[in-house]
Amino acid sequence: MREAKLERATAETKIAISLALDERNPICEITTGVGFFDHMLTLFARHSRISFKCQADGDLEVDSHHTVEDVGIVIGQCLKAALGTKESINRYGHEYVPMDESLGFVALDLSGRSYLVFDAEFSSAKVGDFDTELVEEFFQALAFNAEMNLHLKVLYGKNNHHKIEALFKAFGRALRQAIEINPAIKGVNSTKGVL
Q1: Residues with Cβ within 8 Å of residue 110, at least 6 apart in sequence
Q2: Distance from C-alpha of 190 to C-alpha of 195, rounded to nearest angstrom
Q3: What count of Cα atoms within 13 Å lies in the side-chain half-sphere of residue 8?
Q4: What residues does 28 pair with on adjacent strands?
Q5: Arithmetic mean of pLDDT, 18-27
Q6: Half-sphere exposure of 150 (CA within 13 A, CB side)
Q7: Residue burial 61-85, b: 16+ Cβ < 10 Å; e: rest
Q8: pLDDT number for residue 191
Q9: Which of 118, 135, 168, 190 is deepest in the core (most CB within 10 A)?
Q10: Lowest mean pLDDT: which of 15-24, 35-44, 130-139, 186-195?
């Protein structure tokens, strides 16, 4: 079973995350104290079809930056741990997801090399209680700790909620493709022999 459970405690946050990549009936339990972020993480879990539990207690009296970033760090670390040697996984995933008038695109490579390309603009500083600039911060923390190449793009759209939702859903679906075990792949999907 490919799964991981990790905790991170700092002077700013206390994060506990567990995930399981192969559950037949995935469960999702998320509490971060940031309503919109909980909603986005739930969408990610649903569309990636992973079991995901996240308990985050952060310094929300300051703002939600530390909470969102640290959750991204721990999700990335859990993904890296759960994937192990990455034998027989597809490695790559990509997905377009429409959300009403918005269209999001994500492509990723579980390469062992960290890189983020984020191409999205938001017309307001907040959606609900969530700072829109934290979308990029979250995905950067996740990509660098999972050691993945991650490209996210909003091709078009007007509603900021819809744009962000399209990205989280597309990320979940692209990740599902990448982590799938492919029996046709012997060892790791790389000419180097390691990922």
Answers
A1: 83, 86, 89, 91, 92, 146, 147, 148, 178, 179, 195
A2: 7
A3: 22
A4: 52
A5: 95
A6: 25
A7: eeebbbbbbbbbbbbbbbbbebbee
A8: 86
A9: 168
A10: 186-195
Tokens matching residue 87: 């034998």
Q: Which are the contacts of 60, defined by CB distance < 8 A and separation ≥ 6?
A: 33, 34, 67
pLDDT above 90 (res 129): no
DSSP classification of residue 112: S
The CA dihedral of 195, 88, 48, 59, to the nearest 10 degrees, is -30
Q: Name the helix (H) or strand (E) containing 44.
A: helix 35-48
The amino acid sitting at 190 is S
- pLDDT digit string (tens) for 61-78? 999 999 999 999 999 999
What size, in residues, is the chain?
A: 195
Asked whether the whole model's pTM tops 0.90, one would answer yes
Q: pLDDT tens digits for 101-123?
A: 999 999 999 999 999 999 999 99
**In sequence order, what are the residues at sequence separation of 6 or more whose Cβ sits closer than 8 angstroms to the Cβ of residue 130?**
34, 35, 36, 37, 64
Q: Which residues pair with 99 in a beta bridge?
A: 102
Q: What gap in Å lies between CA 125 and CA 150, rounded to an integer?
A: 23
pLDDT value of residue 192: 87
**64's tokens:** 């939600």
